[in-house]
Amino acid sequence: MPMQTTRREIIRAGCTLGAALPFLQADAVLADSVSDAYILGSVNPELRPAAAKLLADNAYPPLTADNLAYARSLPPPPLDGLKVPVQKRVIAGAKGQPEVIIYVVNPRPAGSKRPALLHTHGGGYILGTASGAIRDLQDICLALDCPAVTVEYRLAPETTYAGSIEDNYAGLKWLHDHAEELGADPARIAVIGESAGGGHAALLAITARDRGEVPLAFQCLIYPMLDDRTGTSRKLPHEMDRLIWTAKSNHFGWKSFLGMEPGGPDVPAAGVPARVSDLQGLPPAFIGVGSIDLFMNEDVDYARRLIAAGVPTELLVVPGAFHGFDTLAPQTHLSRQFRAAEIDALRTGLGLGAPSSPRE
């Protein structure tokens, strides 16, 4: 049976897995109790109840071509709670590309000079929606007193990385060119994303650097999906391949995004941040990830390479935290600390000064 849990409790704004996996009928074989006990032993004690429920309900069936359509059919979470204004816009895409839908969160009349965020949603490159990210962006925009634009980029496998990069860049260019009408400062724009959205944000930072049209002040990458070799040509410990996002789903996501088998020597660097050889000149970065997240090794390695390239980089590795833990267990001290670190990093990167209150 599917888990009896709301989308909002499971996944952050539809990003990490497109908010779908807990509602799919599990078709994987449950691990035996010894294996489950071993995995739970590696989970932070605060997060063990949530992890135990995931394991007991088998709420992480691998994504495949057979269940992708169903996963996409689930509606986004309701936009309840905060009354932060949101506008839907349709903007021109890149030359020869279709129009792009964006959502503008927390705009303000011209005259303000606030920083701004360009957000890219997650979902393994194959799931998720920009509209599903709005509720979470309202919280961030309220905390930072800033506007944000989130992009409804085209998903794989219907569109490979070449198309979605252009969609996201169109959103970034629009934000930069229309900053004044949003009450934003075009010199203080950050890219931000979670999971595959973090991968998109990293690709967008690289694209903006290479094209030289939009200066970026910061990149905020939350457990980003950066390397197609993870779980394919590079194997991982068992505990990193059971909770939320697995190597099998990762393989399917990358294969769809690249339009070819991931992990091999011929994969184009243009679609994989971890394969880009030159990271010099990128904006300062914050990377946050859990120590038992499938993406931990690739995220730590990317942070190391950014530092080696002279890019100011903050890396936060949360002990015993799995992929999407901050959405699955948002009220834990660990998750609140992680969210506070993200906001603090954005404050610093966007020149907003010290946080209004200390981290927990």
Description of the molecule:
Residues 117-325 form the Alpha/beta hydrolase fold-3 domain. It holds the Pfam family Abhydrolase_3. This is Alpha/beta hydrolase. Keywords: Hydrolase. InterPro entries: AB_hydrolase_3, AB_hydrolase_fold, GDXG_lipolytic_enzyme. The protein is α/β, with parallel strands linked by helices and 360 residues long. The protein has one domain (86-349): 3-Layer(aba) Sandwich (Rossmann fold). Helices cover 34% and strands 14% of the residues. The chain has 12 helices and 8 strands. The protein has helices spanning 7-10, 33-41, 48-57, 68-73, 134-144, 161-177, 179-182, 196-211, 247-258, 296-308, 325-328, 333-349, and strands spanning 86-91, 100-105, 114-120, 148-152, 184-194, 218-222, 285-290, 313-318. An 8-stranded mixed beta sheet has the order 1-2-4-3-5-6-7-8, with helices on both faces. The protein starts with 6 loop residues before the first helix and ends in an 11-residue tail after the last helix. Mean pLDDT is 86; it is low at 1-34.
